[in-house]
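hey so u asked for the seq, here:
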Amino acid sequence: MKIFCTGASGYIGGSVAAHLIAAGHRVTGLVRSQDKADAVRAFGIEPVMGTLDDAAVLAQAARAADVVVNAASADHRGAVAALLDALAGSGKAFIHTSGSSIVGTRSRGERSDDIFDEDTPITPSPARVARVELNHFILGAHDRGCRPVIVCPSLIYGIGHGAGRDSVQVPLLINLAKKRGNAAHAGPGENIWSNVHIDDLVPLYTLAIDRAPAGSFYFAENGENSMRETCEAINRILGCPGPPSAMSMQEAAAEWGEGTAEDTMASNSRVRARRARRELGWLPQARGLIEEIEQGCYRE
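ran it, structure tokens below
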């Protein structure tokens, strides 16, 4: 198949594209610059020059492809609309990447016991209302003669396989620990995020392309850990003495920005990927987060 991928130079999109190319598919990828074009071409991706604001470029690439994978932004409604308009009536698959912060609760580092699966009603935080609305818009497009599917990863870890190599949260914590000489979490660090290895996430996209019914939504997770547990593992690999330190929310915002501090690093996002396992036969097998930090790519 010919597959058009946005975010082809990024962590998720690049890894998915590399996997699809290895499986024998032809992949074109949206890139913003010549440097990124050269980077993705090295992985066998045919670059398409443009941005998410270039509706005509997106539409042309989508019409020329058999499948569209949108991995550049979970929030860009204009790009989604352009792609879905181009796919209307085609029966083609549109695989969109969301993120499990849609169920996130701002808790300033405190633990929440709320756990969500695909059938649990969601009341999003103000910062994620637009993303949830966009998800509803996408899934509703099955009435327009295409096959929209959403993959919604939790915290992703591991090294990417394309031009984009690093995830978000774990490198932020490791870099901060190196800077301070000790790992640090926002507030008490009892907040919990479900997580998934990039090596387990990527095959879920292939399964979604091959099997997912129109209008399907899938969480992606294979375990969960608190930020404190993650920071403790980071201290162990860096040889930092003592327990991690607790930052105030003001300190965390100064390090990461207010949105990242509140909605990612100090929030809870606990999900269960029941539908992916049940409907698609998804079987995650990679190392857990703590094991990956202590024995895998982050130690290396």
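The chain has a mean pLDDT of 96. The chain has one domain: 2-164+193-225+270-285.
lmk if thats what u needed
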